Structure formats: C-alpha cells, structure tokens
Amino acid sequence: MRIVAKGLTYTYNPRSPFAVQALKGVDITIEEGEFFGIIGHTGSGKSTFLQHLNALVRLTGGYLKVGEYDLSSKKCDVLGLRAKVGMVFQYPEYQLFAETVEKDVMFGLKNFCRDMGEEEMRSAVREALETVGLDYEEVRDRSPFELSGGQKRRAAIAGVIVTKPEVLILDEPAAGLDPLGKKEIMQLLHGIHGGWCKTVVIVSHDMDEIAENCTRAAVFSEGKVVMEDTPAAIFARSDELLLLGLDIPVTAKCARILKERGIALDTDFTSDDLIRKVLAAYAARKEGRGC
Amino acid sequence: MEAVRLENVKFAYREGEGSYAVNGVTLSVEEGEFVAVLGRNGSGKSTLAKMINALLIPTEGRAIVFGLDTADEKNTFEIRKSAGMVFQNPDNQTVASIVEDDVAFGPENIGLPREEIGRRIGFALDAVGMSAFRSATPSRLSGGQKQRIAIAGVLAVLPKIMILDESTAMLDPKGRREVMDVVKKLNKERGMTVIFITHFMDEALEADRAVVMHRGETVMDGTPREIFSRSDELEMYGLALPRAAYISKKLAEGGMPVGGAFRAEDLAEEICASLQKA
Amino acid sequence: MLNDVIFGQYYPVRSFVHNMDPRAKILFVIAYIVAIFLADNFYALAAVTLFLIVAVLASRVPFGRVLRSVKMILFLIIFTAILNLFFYAGNELHVIWQWKFITLSWEAVINTVFLAFRLFLLVMGTSVLTLTTAPVPLTDGIESLLTPLKWIKFPVHELALIMSIALRFIPTLMDETNRIVAAQKARGANFETGGLIKRAKAVVPVLIPLLVSAFRRAEDLGDAMDARCYSGAKGRTKYKKLVFTWRDLVGALLLAALIAGVVLLNVYLGGKFAILDAFL
To answer: Which of A206, B71, B237, C90 could bridge across to B214 with cysteines, CB 3.0–4.6 Å?
Structure first.
C-alpha cells in the first residue's frame, strides 16, 4: 500500500479562540516496502499526521490516499482501512484492558474479522504473541496487568499485529525502554517487515535509531514536511537539522567534526558504515605512507 | 560528609515471598557527589531510590540519610526535607493548576511564612530557568518544562540531596537536555548531592560516579569511564555502550590506535589524531 | 484540546469583576439569588436585571457569551414554563381557555413569565461568577468561606485539596481518554453505531485502561506529595492569601442597594398580579 498525502491541512478547535493549526500543507509519499522514519519535535504535527492515516481525525483539507482507500471520499471504508493499517500508539501498554492476554490480543480480530472461527482466532493470537516473543501457553490466561513493563508493551503490539496489517505505524515504539528492550523491539520490527507487513512507519526522537533502521525518512517542522529523503541524505544536511533544534545521530556529529578537520567521509551515517569508512581511510593513509 | 549510607538493605514488596526487589545493597554517597544509577527496567533502581527518602522502609538493613535512620518515623519529615525526589512521569507530580502554586506546595507543607514562600518560589523557578512561567498552567507546558517545574517544587524546600527517579525517561531529547543541564548546574554551583537514576547511558557520562544495578544488587561501581570500559560486563547486565563508545571499540578492534571515547566529539578527535599519525 | 471546552467557562480578560475577591463574588452571587427570590413584582425583577446588566458590563464579557450559558438549560426553562402554564392553580383565575383539567389563565401566564424570567436571571448571574473567576481562585474562595466549618471537624482543607487536584487532573485525564479512544478505534472498536447494550459494551475497552491509569497516577501523585513533605493540614501554611479590595466594597454597596430597592419596590408596587388589575 502506497501512502500519498498532498497539501494536508488540519486545525484543532477551528473557529474558536483556541484554534491551533497542526498541519499546514503536508506533502509526503511513502512507498510500499519502506521502513519509513518520521522525525520532528513534539508539536510539529507528526502525531496529527499519523492519526490521519488511520482515519482517527476527519480529513478537512488536502488529499490523502492510503493504498486504494481515498480518505477524502465520504464513502471511504474506515474499518477496512484500519484493518490494513495497524497503529501502535506511544506507550501502547496503556490501552490493555481485557481479563486475559489472549482476550486482549483477540480484540482486534473480533472487530475486524467477524466471521473468523474461534480456533482460527486462537491460532492467530498464538502467532502474534510468538512474533513479539511471548510464550503463548505461559501468558494466554494471565492478566495483562500482571506482566512486566517490557512484556506489556509486547502484548500490546501483538494486539495490533494480530490482524496482520499491511502497513504498521508505530509512534515511538521504544520510548521508556532500556537499551536491550529497545534493541529487541527494533529486531522485532525488522523481523515482520517484508513479510505480511510490507511497510513500517516509525516515529522516533532517537536519530541513531532512524539512521540505523530506516530506508527513508521525513522531517516534520511546524506542520509541514521540510525534508523527505534517505537518512543518509537527511543527515548530510545536519546543519539544517540543528537549526530546526533537532538532534543528529552520533555518527553525523562525528562526521561533521571530521569534515571540519578536512577529513571527508562519504558515509550513510550507520555505525557499521562509519566504522568501515574510517578503517578504510586509516588503511589508505597507512599504505600511502608506506609507498 | 556522608550524605547517604545504605547498609545491606533489602526490600520485598510482598513480605514473606522471598523475592527481593532490592537484595542486599551497601552504598555510601558523599555530600556533593553526582551518582548515576544504571540498570535495566526492573533491576531495583526505583525501589532503591524510594528507600533514600523514606517512601519505602527497608525490609532488612538500614538506610541512613545525614545520620538519620529512615526506619524511625520521627525522622521521616526531616529526611524528606533534606532528600527531595523527582519522579518519572511529568504529568503525575504536580498538585496545582498554576506553576507558582505547585512550587509553593512543599514550602507550605513545612510551614514557612508567606513572604518566605514567595522568595523560595522566585529562587527555585530561577534556578531551573522557568521564571517566565510563574503563572502558567503546567498541563500546557512541554515535558521538559514540566520536569523542571517538578525540580523547582523540590528545590523550594532547599534539600541537600536530589534524587531523580528516571526523570528523563519520558522526555524527548530536548527535554532530557533541559533537565540534565539544570541538574548539572545544581550539582556544580550549589554542591547539591545528586542521585540520578536512568537507563540512558550517555546521561551517566555527566556523573562523577556510576553504579550499575542488576536483579536488586549493585554489580558495578566506579567512574563512568571505568564502567564503560568494561563493555562485556555491561552487556551482560542488559545495558549497552553509548554509541560513540561502541564505534570507538569497533575501530580499535579493526586495528586503529583508538579507545576510550564516549562522546561523538571525543570520538572525532580520536579518529582525527590517529588518521594524522598514520 | 477538549480541555479548553471544560475550562472554557472562564473568560480570560482583565476587568473590574475579574479583579474582585472570589470570596466576595461567591457571597455576592448568593445575595443576588436572594434578591431574585425576594422580588415579587416585575419592577423588582427589572431592578435585578439592571444590576445584572451593570455587572456584565463591568465584567467585560460579551453579552452573547453570557447568554450562551442560558442556552444549556433552555430546555429546563421551557419544560418548567409549560408545566406552569397549564397546571397553575389559584383561587380566582381569569381563565382564558379550559379543557378538562387543563386550564390556561392570565395568572398562569404571568406566573410563567415571572418564573422563566427568574430562572434566566439566576443562570445569567451565576455564570458571571464562573466566567470571571478561574477554577483555582474559585476553589480557594470556597475553601476560605467554608473555614468556619472546621469547628465542627469538617475536613475543609482536605476537601479543597481534593477539588484542586481534581481540577488539575481533568485536562490530563481528558487527553488520556482521547488517546485510548483513538488507540481502540485503531484496533477496530466501534463507538458510533449499535444499540444501547452494544455501545455500553464498547466503552469497556476505554474505561478499564482509564481507571488503571487513574489509579497509577493517584499512586504516583501520593508518592510525589509524600516526598514533598505533605503531612496533612497540621503545621501547613498557605502562600496565596485572599484580600478584599475597594472593588469588593463597591460590589457590596451595590448589592445592598439592590436588595433594599427590591424590598421597597415589593412594598410600594404590590405583587406580580397587580398589573392584571390595570388591564382586566
């Protein structure tokens, strides 16, 4: 499913003294198969944009098409759209509600796939829980509120991916997790990306995460998309990012300083690539002296 | 002077079950020290923190704050006055709908006269750089600003120790930086003893000392540099090196004469130096 | 964003009325209500109306904004008016129309108009209070006025603290509700269609997480309050002190004049039905 937005605008509390224009004409294209990153400050409009992708706010201005679903049309099948576009909110563990993990994960299935049999649902739940790294037999009958913090997060994600959405959108999926927990979540996303889940869209404040994981990314600022490119191209413009008050990855910080010192590295800002390029430069200099 | 002394403290949330959230920690913090406490979620960091200002009383062992034993209820008020605590969720710590009223809460509780409370609010908001927001509504501030208000609320009681229990965990990078800057300033300029609980490795770099907790025990204790040089151990405890340190380590493994950088700036210097030498 | 709707009652401008002491304003509203119920004829009500107009002008809140608060209870006003119109019982009635036990009389008409007028004035007056006083000073005012109740061991401080914390958490919980609703909608929850039972069931996935979160927040807040040396009202001081100013004196004088005027008009110009004598 391809996501295309053109001139998307949105205002909260329109025609009131509290009116806030959250989107001021967003243009963006997310191709099927991408692992897409969204960067921007709190209040830059990125959350409002994400909510549009799931028809959680009504489209009031501009054009938005998600796959074959035209959000600007009144006849848009919202339920069908939501079944195909999974959405994991920030701190998704706060939406757990059922008595057992199994029932909670099944909630989406019961809403979206009404004619699915009980057995089929069970096996879908099992698959979803196993995908997120939880032991189905061990957790199925437990209360979701008894799980540990990291397990709750996984169970909540299972509740979204249980319907195997083609597009998975995650708002800061690793927020509040410790380093290992973060790594595991990213591994989990890479694990499902490319299979039934064709496209992954993540919002992250962690620029290293974007640099290491994404195929392309967009930078939101004041209700607009100001950059949309590969992480390599975006972080090559780190001066502009810093001007916008955004962070840059450690690799980009390092490359900037090296560039000032006259050492230009053509890197894509992933750690592995930077290491490779620096080692290559080192080897080249050593050889150069050897001659 | 010794600010905090924990003597083999243990704590169990449900007594008699034998599973301790904190399982025999002995730790001493000097006045003016900036200690980072690292560890995975559920390693017992928060439980440890709550024992320092008598929110939790050790099931076993003793927690002593400026010579006062937390187990003695008569000391509770004094201990809380000298050991302030900032929590994780910026939304759950403010009691009032206006910033100055919220900062006033602590001073009101310890029964200060009106004029003094006014002065304390001025001082505390100034110290966290939030003077301009004195009459603002906390719910409209950013996460970082809310946490600075929470710090101001603690500061207004003039504590000698400030405990931050994962106070940056829910913030964006800008908010984290704001909080870190304030805390560093308090430590450097006012000699505030800081106990900073976090799982952001790069934040630990700002501390004088880092303590790593794992399954309720302290497993590493030293300067952040020492701790980060033991990367295999860190990994064992579910923690990761700051990215710059990771890159530096990999470069050294690749045969470059580098090692010991933890920040991007240092890493660049290292690379630069070794490339020029080559 | 919805917070603004909740707190939208407060109209943030600076004015004579805004600057009055909240305690004074609460007392004035009570006195104003007394004046409304004392008023026994249309002249007296006219005097109250005049006072209301002066109050609204002094508050610098647009009339339309004050009127909007009446809109919310318009249904109530119409409902009581209709009941009154057809079921008014009196001794000597100037009947206009009668059908079985339903009677329409001139007295009923006058009584209904009078009643609706009173309700209207009542709502307009009280909304001037909420439009010009932010929730926090309002709670402070209530707490201060309730202070004498401490003598009968009424937990005034605790009550005021609960009120102000509740006010403080309304926006947070509203945001949270919106977030949970959105998250469950994304999982296919349907809140818009279906019968009553289906809709009630649909609320569960929102209500439970909301409750869980409210408890978690309460626990956190309890810890934060303890950590900030909270130990009840004992030994506690207050930073904000309410002070009466000349504005409150002006208000008091005006209200005293209003009540005196209403009483005089009542005495000299007779009851509300007196105008009937002139026409019929």
So the answer is: B237
